[in-house]
From TrEMBL:
Annotated protein name in UniProt: Sulfatase-like hydrolase/transferase
Domain annotation Sulfatase N-terminal: ranges: 4-98
Similarity-based family: Belongs to the sulfatase family.
Classification via PROSITE patterns: SULFATASE_1 (PS00523)
Keyword terms of this UniProt record: Calcium, Hydrolase, Metal-binding
InterPro entries: Alkaline_phosphatase_core_sf, Sulfatase, Sulfatase_CS, Sulfatase_N
Pfam families the UniProt entry points to: Sulfatase
Amino acid sequence: MTFQTSSYIDRLASEGIVFLNSYVTQASCSPSRSSLFTGLYPHQTGGRPNEPVGQIGLAYNNSGYSMAPRVVTLPQLLKAQGYRTGIIGKLHVYPETSFNTTRTRSEYFSHLSWRSRSRFFPCER
């Protein structure tokens, strides 16, 4: 068996940190992801009068669980500083417009079968 050398990855591994424990703000994926993207607890991402209830439950169509438009996400902050941002894999946090992509995932993947939709999502400038 032939192995490829990867000096940059090897260096990253030798100088990196191993985290043995991790904690989340909520046991289900959508609320936990909203915390990672915003730095807020899930119940802080909405719930004021005339706002969505917040990302306190699983995100799916018509669930009612969604972040309020006022909530700023990490991708928004990075993009404002000139970084290119994109979504890789499953987002599962509503609304998708909170992530500053010019098109929704369904517009990118409308030509693909449901089985292959999570394979690629291009970066936006």
